[in-house]
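Hi R.,

Here's the chain you asked about this morning:
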Amino acid sequence: MAAPSELEHKAKEAFVDDDFALAAALYTQAIAAGAPTAALHADRAQAYIKMGDFAAAAADAARAAELDPAMPRAHLRRALACVKLGQYDAARAAVEAGAALAPGDARFAQLMEEIDAKAPKPTPLAETPAATAVAVPMPTDKPKYRHDYYNSAAEVVVTVFAKGVAPEHVAVEFGEQTLSVSVEVPGEAPYHLQPRLFAKIVPANCRFAVLSTKIEVRLAKAQPGTTWTSLEFTNKPHVAAAAPKVAAAQRPSYPSSKGKKDWDKIEAEVKKQEKEEKLEGDAAANKFFQDIYGNADEDMRRAMMKSFVESNGTVLSTDWKDVGSKKIEASPPEGMDLRKWEY
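And the predicted structure, written out as tokens:
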């Protein structure tokens, strides 16, 4: 199986050769092969922008900004994609965030000029005696908690930023095209998020987790491979995330290209290696534990680390409620004795 760094390098080469579809495919493999990074999502967003898939680009750039809020290019690429989608409020917010991080980058100022030209901010009315006499309706209350979402190929991940909420105060229900998240803490105003979703989901495959800083809801798409351009239902058509494959014979060559490369063959070999790779012994065990740890939530990871360290590597638990309040004693395998080494 190719390492994420190797796949990233091949993706950069494909991008330089203007083969943006292949670059996006290789970035996707790099993301799947290791822990997701802001750089990989930001660079795949740039490939999607070059391909004209602005919905996928906006989602990738938003994910990059979530992983690393201090990355200016993540905000820049989200702003570029949102402008193309006509989402000017989101584009303006991304430009403001990026310009604060890189005040010397003229691209943010140019983008803001373009946004203001297409969707100028409303100008406050000058105060007049007649105006002061008109009753102004009170603004509606803001939601108690902020929420956001991002796409993956098979899921939409919705995050409700509710900090320190006990699981017993949270109720989540899934419908064919509906989601209901309710937070009801005694003595506090209730919170409800109940949108009609952008597209259909598979309720049986959906799940959620109540973490210390947020509520994370994972919606299984009924049509994997499509990109949700919003969380709530709209009349806009669904956008396919995967770009059509370009035949190798149609790919242009450039003087800067480093010789001819059969990228279709390289991609097929990578997939074959991933499928045929069989790990044995410690390598297989390590990969098994890495998969568990990579898919675990924060409490499960804490439980795994605590039980493994305190038991000298003889116990591995994912149940924080069980191991969080006690010391985990060593438990050697049957037929073996635990010995303390003297140095």
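Strands lie at 147-151, 155-160, 170-174, 179-183, 191-193, 207-210, 215-220, 226-227, 239-240.

Let me know if you need anything else.
M.
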